[in-house]
Predict the 3D structure of the following.
Amino acid sequence: MTVADELEPVTPETEATEAEEPIKQRKNGLYPGVSDELAENMKSGWADTELHGLKPIAQAAETAARRAALSARFPGDRLVIPSGNLKTRSNDTEYPFRASVEYAYLTGGRPDDSTDGVLVLEPTGAEGHEATIYLLPRSDRENGEFWLSGQGELWVGRRHSLTESAELYGIPAADVRELADKLREATGPVRVVRGYDAGIEAALHDKVTAERDDELRVFLSEARLVKDAFEIGELQKAVDSTVRGFEDVVRVLDRAEATSERYIEGTFFLRARVEGNDVGYGSICASGPHATTLHWVRNDGPVRSGDLLLLDAGVETHTYYTADVTRTLPVNGTFSAIQRKIYDAVFDAQEAGIAAVRPGGKYRDFHDAAQHVLAERLVEWGLVEGPVERVLELGLQRRWTLHGTGHMLGMDVHDCAAARVESYVDGTLEPGMVLTVEPGLYFQADDLTVPEEYRGIGVRIEDDILVTEDGNRNLSAGLPRGSAEVERWMASLKGSRD
């Protein structure tokens, strides 16, 4: 039995009748079921644990610049950006907390102290804002909250004090429990990022409009299209850990064959948790025909020699930046003739796509380049009638290519999703943008329009590409891509668990 089992928090909802539990006849004023003696004992005898001389978080200068850009865009408006609340997983257990992207982007807020947090930018006049970060303060030991509340520090760990948070984030900090009343009394135009904190939205319900709030969300999404130097460094860090995670998987493929795709999922997850915050999204560990299902995250199928393993996974850093990398690997280390044929076609398509990533180019260029190569191969193989231009015009290749060839990458795996079409999909590439290039071919096991040898084979190759001043840089170049390179790489790792 754990301490938590022995010290289950007592709340008014769990109070029993006096006949059921005589001790609950004693009240200490706030928490029923706690004797006055115990309540008094728990108030004292604790060391002062206040931390002094904390250094600002690594991205403090960058988050200040981001807030300044936001302030300049919306002069005179009060701007409210919540981090979000805990989400119930089941009964009285919650999912691990992850702050909203907008909040984390503007503050650098971390999972351990951002629950229920809110960033507020108060206008100082026609121009400029004063920022305050509203957070939960340290648990109150005087009223017993720290040991009797399920979210007290004895249960879930120490929070930073408001003074400590102000030092870390470079933003004045205040008690978030007082914020709702302040917002109700506020006057003047207000904008809030919706969908994260129902209590904050309720306090503002007669002061905001959906249109104005959408403008705020769109701005914050488009601001993330071009990454600053800190963000690029974090993405490289995420990719480097992801490369090591892929190496881990190759080393234990024999064990995965003896168990299931879940061994692969667990192996990669271990790397993500040791070197980062988490995985950036549900890992796709798709072996055999499962590789033809784009988002196969059940990961409960067999891993068999002779099949291909499509592994799509990414480590998320502690600052919430995620990699997104895919490799399709022969489980036994060697591609069959038909597997190599399909794999090489996808590789050639990805090469064409990556080559099209350059500053001043259109965002759609890399997709069009990759799709053109795949359409050529499908015509060449006799799977669809040409010419290639006709296939592309009618989109006939999409029966087997299925998805777009990439997306922006950052704090969300599909980053900048609220950006306007003209700024994103119809936009122009700029240095500092980071995107994925991930063409694929997927021949479903029940697709009677292709020869039997194609059926059940799915191949995707995905890399994370930084747009540079003179072209691009493949952040995930540490993982081999060509079929022969992949085989040599696997041979050097397979069975090695050092």
User: Anything to note?
Assistant: The first helix runs from residue 3 to 6. The chain has a mean pLDDT of 92.
